[in-house]
Each structure stands twice: as C-alpha cells, then as structure tokens.
Amino acid sequence: MKVLWGSLMVLATFMTSCSAFCYFIPMKVSDVSSPHVCKYLDGITYPMNSNWNTKYCENCTCNERGIKCCKIAAIPLDCDKIECHAIFYHQNCTYTVVEHQDHRKNCAVGTWML
Questions:
Q1: Which residues constitute the signal peptide according to the record (predicted)?
Q2: Are strands 94-99 and 84-89 parallel, antiparallel or unpaired?
Q3: Is residue 97 part of a domain?
Q4: Please, what is the end-to-end C-alpha distance for the chain in angstroms?
Q5: Are 55 and 81 in a shared domain?
Q6: Burial 25-47 (b: 16+ CB within 10 A, else e)
Q7: Which pLDDT tens digit goes with each residue over 27-80?
Q8: Which of 8, 17, 10, 13 has the alpha carbon at shortest distance from 77?
Q9: 76 with 84: CB under 8 angstroms?
Q10: Which of 59, 77, 79, 114 could form a disulfide bond with 20, CB atoms 3.0-4.6 angstroms apart?
Q11: What's the CA gap between 67 and 39, in Å, rounded?
C-alpha cells in the first residue's frame, strides 16, 4: 500500500509540474463598480463569465474573482537542438521543429509542454 501511495504522489507531482503556464489577475476594488465585466491588462473589458484568446497565445476566462489566463502554445522540449530549431507561428500559436540545413524537413519531438 505504501508503494502505491508513493507512486501516486510522484505521479501527482509530475502532473502538476507539467501543467500549462497560467496566471491570475484578481478583481480590484476599483473594478467592483463594474461588476459585470473584467478588465484585461491591455485595458479591454470582457463580459463576466466569458472566455477569449489573447494576441499573446493565451486563453483567458473571467469570473467574479478575476481573470485567469493560460498559455495555449505547446512548446517543443525534447528534440535535437544541434541539428534542429523551432519556428513559432504567431497567427495560430504553434511551433514547427525543422532541420537547420533544410527547413522543409521536420525534426522529431519527444516532448511538448503547454
């Protein structure tokens, strides 16, 4: 039983460390005067309980506590960094990993992280 419990703890820790990068913007006292909207960092307001994507490849949600935003672009981690490099496509928030010598050839990626 102790072995099973230990294995579950290691797995839970691993899963937590691999979760998406997120941050939280708490509702400010000054924002309480407009209880039906959330104000994002760029000054744009969004309706309460709404969801949107930012130009920074983040998905944000708004509720009465504030705004939570998480990265949506999966980042390549496990690839041949000597022979290959990553190219980021901002228009659709994706990466492609290609060979340095021939950008038409994709490289294998073992691990992606959100």
A1: 1-20
A2: antiparallel
A3: yes
A4: 33
A5: no
A6: bebeeeeeeeeeebbbeeeeebe
A7: 876 655 566 889 888 888 999 999 999 999 999 999 999 999 999 999 999 999
A8: 17
A9: no
A10: 114
A11: 8
Q: Is the dihedral of CA 11, 69, 29, 37 positive or negative?
A: negative
| Contact criterion met (CB below 8 Å) for 51 and 72 | no
- The first and second tokens of residue 97, run together, are 């990993």
78-87 confidence digits (pLDDT tens): 999 999 999 9
User: Looking at the structure, do residues 39 and 55 belong to the same domain, yes or no?
Assistant: yes
The verdict on pTM exceeding 0.70 is no
Three-point CA angle 92, 112, 58, nearest 5°? 40
Query: 33: closest CA among 45, 51, 20, 15?
Result: 45
Structure tokens at 94: 């994706």
Q: Return d(Cα 61, Cα 49) in angstroms, integer.
A: 7
DSSP bridge partners of 51: 61
